[in-house]
Amino acid sequence: MFRRKFSKVRNKRPKNHLSLSKLKHHYSVLKGKKITSEKKRSKIIESLRSIGEIVVWGDQNDPEISDYFLENKILPFLLQLMLQIGGNPAELQFIQTFNIMYNNIKNEKFLYYLLSNVNSIIVHRYDFNNEDIMGHYITFLKTLSLKLSSETIYLFYNERTNAFPLYTEAIKYYNHSDSMVRTSVRTIIQKVYSVENPNMLQIVREITDGPYFSDLSSDSN
C-alpha cells in the first residue's frame, strides 16, 4: 500500500534486509524520530514495516532477533509510539505491522508474549473514518481470533474484571455497511463460541443483545 522511497544516504546502513543489525537500525530510527515533516513520517512508516518483516523472519531463522525484541521491550515501545503518533498513514502501518507479526509468529513462547500485550492494541482509538484502517483493523481482530484456544483465552479474557476486548470491540461492527467487515465479525464470534470456557461464554451471552443474533442470521441467508 505504501511506496518504498529510496534515496542516497551518507551514513553506513546494514546491507542485509533481514538481520539483527537491520532490526537494531530500524529500532534506533524509531527512537530518534519525531514527526516534523512528511519525510520523517515516511521513514517511520518504513521502519515499522521493516520491523514486522524482520521479526517474522527471525522467528524462523535467527533466535537472536526474537531475543533482542524481547530484551529491549520493543512491543511496549511500539504501543507507546502509536499513542504518541497516531493519525494516517502511520496508524495504518502500525496495524499492518502488528498483523504480520501476530499472524506469522510460530514460536509458542514468543507468540504468548505478543498475545499478553494484545488488548492494548485492540482498544486503541483508531481513525475508523479511514476505510483502510477499518478494513485492516477488523482483519487484525480476525487474525487474533484464530489464536483463541482454551490455552490462550486467558490472554484475551480477564476473568476478574470480565473484560474481553476482542469480543466487545468486534461486535460493535456486526452490522457494518461493508460485507467484508460483517463476515469477519461473524468469524470472530464463531471462534469465540468454539472455546470451552464457561465463565467467558456466560459473559459473552450476557453482553450480546438479541438483535445481534437475528441480524447475524439474516445476513448469512
Key phrases:
221 residues, mainly alpha, 67% helix, 0% strand
Topology:
Layout: H1 20-32, H2 38-61, H3 63-71, H4 74-85, H5 90-104, H6 108-116, H7 118-122, H8 131-145, H9 153-156, H10 165-170, H11 179-193, H12 198-207, H13 210-220
Provide the helix percentage: 55-70%
The succession of helices and strands, N to C, reads HHHHHHHHHHHHH
Main beta-sheet strand count, sense and barrel state: none
State the distance separating the first and last CA atoms.
Answer: 34 Å
Compute the gyration radius: what is it? Answer: 19 Å
- Hey, roughly how much beta strand do the residues contain? under 5%
**Shape type:** globular
Q: What would you say this structure looks like, in words?
A:
The structure is a single chain. By secondary structure, this protein is mainly alpha-helical. It is built from 13 helices and no strands. It has helices spanning 20-32, 38-61, 63-71, 74-85, 90-104, 108-116, 118-122, 131-145, 153-156, 165-170, 179-193, 198-207, 210-220.
Short account of what is shown:
This protein has helices spanning 20-32, 38-61, 63-71, 74-85, 90-104, 108-116, 118-122, 131-145, 153-156, 165-170, 179-193, 198-207, 210-220. The chain is mainly alpha-helical and 221 residues long.
